[in-house]
Fold each of these.
Amino acid sequence: MLYLPEGVERILVPQEEIDEIVTNIAEQVDRDYAGKRLVLLCILKGSVVFMGDLMKKLRTPAEIDFMKVSSYGSGTESSGTVKIVLDVLRKDLSECDFLIVEDIVDSGKTLKYLVEYLKLKGAKTVKTCTLLDKPERRQVEFVPDYCGKQIPDEFVVGYGLDYDERFRALPYVGVLSRSVYEK
Ligand code: PRP
């Protein structure tokens, strides 16, 4: 039996399915980035597990970089403003084909902002990759270039995703019990 910690109601995307999704995305990226200078840009913190698994499955040589933005306060709702907390440090953006790696797209504001930001900074190309997408929650027009799985509007945790910094280390994506945030 898999371990379900208190506060996690059920598993939404099991480990085996995540593995297949990541393999599939890696194959698509390999096809599309042959001969390019691929830079995987991990958006901290939630994307760190997906990023680690994805980069191990790629055959295309890839550099890695990190950014951190803050768009959410604590809890389950987005404050809606994107602020850069950690920027890319490299200077050779015009030579880089960036693939932004995200755990989840919700309102779409973070990725829409980051794509525009990197293009303004002179990146050669910018594409986006997300493990999960909640299209019902979109507040701005945004479609990721690579998407692992569309999910319904439920609060999910695990595989990098948190609730107030908890549950990130779970190996699957689970649904948070309403009782945790409706107290
Ligand atoms: C989450 C997620 C995305 C963003 C998506 O990050 O990792 O970066 O929210 O939401 P949006 O589409 O509404 O912009 P979060 O702010 O929770 O930070 P974390 O990754 O450090 O947990």
Amino acid sequence: MSWLSPPAEHRAHVAPSLLAADFTALDRDIARMTIGGADLLHLDIMDGHFVPNLTFGPHIVQAVRRLTDLPLDAHLMLTRPDLYVDRFIQAGADAVTIHIECEADISDTLAEIGRLGARRGLSLNPPTPVEELRPYLRQVDLVLVMTVMPGFGGQEFDPSGLDKIRALAAAREAGGGDFLISVDGGINDRTAASCRAAGADIIVSGSWLFHHADPQEGISLLRG
Ligand code: DX5
Ligand code: ZN
């Protein structure tokens, strides 16, 4: 599975978050997003412990894998992602994103994701200072900036994420790693524009995009 190159300047890749899809018609919704021009799919995995909600596991990721050729990013909102990364990669995830606030050893888990052949993603919640990522920036392919407290779709965008995006873009520019910057939570056409201006490479959108009448138009508004 091919991964993403950096997007053209001032533009972004778009990752629909399947959390907002209609799970009775997942094939239809994935097809709509694919035809609409999605660049990858974002899969929210929640354990009911790291976040106060439950979603789905590797079995559904495997089903999604059979429905699309798009790259899949598994966003693991799990207290112990280290116990599951192999199963998500086996199920077909191209990237696995873990949280810096989890209870696993971050370096070891990122190394394991890479060893198993997937892209290594690291995410941080709104209250976590971006400085905490610094020791790991050379070990990741993707940083996922959360602009809501994870757990639920449809929340309001926290603009403090914009400074984090800028700080990450500056760190990368200064030679501190080679990663894509992704942003997740409360993204619509307006907040996406602010994220792109701050330096985001990947825009994740759930509620806004899935409620947009025309996915192609929605995706192109997010892409810039
Ligand atoms: C939140 C998830 C998000 C969510 C985004 O816990 O990580 O990916 O699906 O949904 P919206 O775009 O509705 O905020
Ligand atoms: Zn997510």
Amino acid sequence: MYEQISHSLLNDILVELKKKNKPQKNMQFFYTRLGANFYAIYSLFNTLYGDHPDFKKHMLQLVETLMRQYSSRSGHLKKIDLEREKDHNWFLNQKWVGMALYCDGYADNLKDMLPRLSYLQELGVNLVHIMPICDCPEGKSDGGYAVRNFCKIDSRFGTFEDFDKLVTNLKKRDMLLTLDVVVNHTSDQHEWAVKAREGDKAYQDYYFIFDDRSIPDIYEESMPEVFPETAPGNFTWDESMGKWVMTVFNNYQWDLNYRNPSVFIEMLNIILFWANRGADILRLDAVAFLWKKMGSSCQNEREAHLILQLMKDCCQVTAPGVIFIAEAIVAPTEIIKYFGEDAINAKECEIAYNATFMALLWDAVATKKTILLNKGIHDIPQKLERATWLNYVRCHDDIGWGFSDADIVTAGYEPLSHRRFLVDYFTGNYEGSLAAGLAFGRNSETGDARISGSLASLAGLERALKNNDPDAISMAIKTILLLHGMILSFGGIPMLYYGDAIGTLNDDSYLNDESKNNDSRWVHRPKMDWEKAMQRTQPGTVEYSIFNAVKKMISIRKEIPAFADRNNRELLSVDNPHLFVFSRFDQINSSSRVLIIGNFDAEPQFLNLSPLQRMGFFQYDSIKNLCNGESMPAINENLMIPARSFYWLQA
Ligand code: GLC
């Protein structure tokens, strides 16, 4: 859009930059994109920082950052940018299947990732999320999310040389790379924090630092605690500085102050740094927390969204092929906003964690019913066209029961006791439950807690194996496959978690490490057991059963255009409370509709297909089970779905 004020400011900036820098070649695409986005960039920057006395100076620095990073972007990446501009919905394709892993957990380090890539390809994974690799203090690292230096690779993981080789190799294999940018906070040992501690006012302004408790106490009135057991409160007393610092997560993670435009520009520079290193997708960590406002929960504030929009608009100028994942584990009505509101295309993050679906799936596992799952999914607002979910069953974090009390009531349960039931169920303290999870962040007043534990252990495999109970083992495997069957067909990018395709159990070894033993999330961050992984070739083993079934689902998913995410899902309400039923359709070829049915009960269940047929959702003479290619017997139109199983059916 052409607008006089911003246009004349841009002219001034460009004249200034021309004076400062040598003339640059091949800047045509940069200038076209800058021109197209500048009004939006200016407006957002002005809304956030317009009152700042150095507003113009910061605008200049912002444009200079975009230009400098564009100049150092490689020709190869610029070519990918152009390709993705043409095929701008590239990430909605059903061909993408991801896996999240630690490079020192899945392999030994970045170098050792190379010989381990073939396992991913064997499974069908073509998008790899390597968890944080930036330099962190040993011990106080929060699994890599307490960064000491954003532009340095932690020596435990390797060097930039190892990293570059890995990136080149991934590109050859047509595999995408996702990396984290921890935008909300730094380690207390980051250079900025060190300078702040030394009394540098400019760097103290990078954080929220207070002389006494008066302001922190006001903040605390409305701020919830993220880690109530291990890091209670949201402020930490820094002895050497003699001041209080805002630390929403662990006491060694200092929250960045985005009211300061310099912080925004620094972090944008870091985003572009990793974009230029070859990341295809950047996972922006803890984005709900980016803006702090007294009297609020300091989550999901409007300004947090403006910051993300500004990051997006800026990234589109320098590295338009790179897309963002929002890690916002918040209420469903809030998550959806991280795509950007009032838009068609995502104007904040193109991808968002579908934490709602994940938690609801686990609720269905525990209750063996899908009432809450159906209600929760039904209520998720329609998302934008050019935006997609990251669907997952497990990740490196705990499982929180993010659905609302009101939904729990609608589903016929009492909120407090239902939440307690879920905790009891997954910690194995409920009759009949074989789950072996651990409570995380327990609230001593309500008994509510989040849950840690590996997928297999939560699904009952660990205890079934201990009890040497073949039926229970089989039920646990079915549960694992049912959950994968859901995330692979729901619509979005399925993100598997390393170890889950071979049924990795809880790993207690973290208890021997003092820096980890107060954080039970480490129970599901194991070292990959490659000997166990070899069992995937041995028929009759647990590893074989899980790995080969998941592999098959992935390969089928890739062949079904209806599984691409184009807002082409219909949730179907059926009168069996154990079933989760939805259909996926291909907008071009409507006959290729797929009916997905998940039975969360431990007994077989029946579905009468005729109402679906009458309503036109699913026309059939015969039905094909896509997972084995066979035709299905639909006795009297009543289809039997075995216990803890799912079907992907095509008419
Ligand atoms: C994100 C990460 C989590 C970390 C937190 C603080 O939620 O997923 O592991 O503890 O941010 O950085």
